Amino acid sequence: MKTADSQYLQWSLIPGMGESREQALDRLRDEAVRVGADAVVGCRFTTSMITQGASEILAYGTGVKLADE
């Protein structure tokens, strides 16, 4: 089983993948703020090869609104 840290290390070894992961996470965070979410739970990353030498990375999760007490 891989931890998030070991996956990040592997992505960091591929040129640009570490930066792409951070950009995907930033976009996820920005979209959550845009729709009024207080947090994002169940965050996941997925990658796929588009063509040789080109891949995409996708970050997704569930935006939630915290209840007022």
How would you portray this structure in words?
This protein has 69 residues and is α+β, with helices and mostly antiparallel strands. The protein has one domain. It contains two helices and two strands, in the order ααββ. The protein has a two-stranded antiparallel ribbon. Helix 1 packs across helix 2. The N and C termini lie far apart (38 Å).
Notable features of this structure?
69 residues; alpha+beta
Number of helices: 2
Could you give the count of β-strands? 2
Strand fraction: 25-35%
H/E series: HHEE
The SS-based structural class is: alpha+beta
- Low-confidence runs of at least 5 consecutive residues: 1-5
What overall geometry do the principal axes of the alpha carbons give?
elongated
* Total number of domains: 1
How are the strands ordered across the major sheet? 1-2
The radius of gyration over CA amounts to: 14 Å
In short:
The chain has 69 residues and is α+β, with helices and mostly antiparallel strands.
List the helices and strands and how they pair.
Elements (H helix, E strand, L loop, with lengths): L3 H10 L3 H18 L4 E13 L2 E11 L5
Antiparallel strand pairs: 1-2
Helix pairs in contact: 1-2
